[in-house]
Specification:
- The protein has six helices and three strands.
- By secondary structure, the protein is mostly helical.
- Strands 1-3-2 form a three-stranded antiparallel beta sheet.
Length: 122
């Protein structure tokens, strides 16, 4: 999975937060709250994200609308699975992860794993 630069991440965050496809002009308005970007810069970044498989584009009048190819949750999950797959021995990585997350997150993960395996939590 491709690493994202800061502008790519910002663009993805705008689309994930919007929850609907946006034109470059709409993205530009949202992104220019933090910095002054050119239309062509945002268009180039959006096209780069299409090539990386992060965005899909659909024709809309004389322009395109861009949307996230998958949800933020799906993206983060894929990153976590990719990182896990990079380890030849997953158990120590999983154990360290379980010890590293906040207690509330650990309990939520435990509950989800229990649901997956059909076991009851207590």
């Amino acid at each position: 999975m491709a690493n994202l630069g800061s502008l790519e991440r910002a663009l993805m965050d705008v689309l994930w937060d919007a929850g609907e496809p946006m034109r470059v002009r709409e993205l530009l308005v949202e992104l220019n709250g933090e910095r002054e970007l050119a239309y062509t810069t945002v268009q180039t970044v959006a096209e780069r994200l299409v090539k990386k498989g992060m965005l899909v584009r659909t024709p809309h009048r004389n322009a395109f609308r861009y949307a996230a190819a998958r949800s933020r949750d799906e993206h983060v999950t894929a990153l976590m699975l990719e990182a896990l797959a990079a380890s030849p021995d997953r158990l120590p990585v999983l154990a360290r992860f379980a010890r590293s997350v906040e207690e509330e997150d650990a309990l939520a993960l435990f509950d989800e794993l229990a649901r997956r395996t059909g076991r009851k939590t207590g």
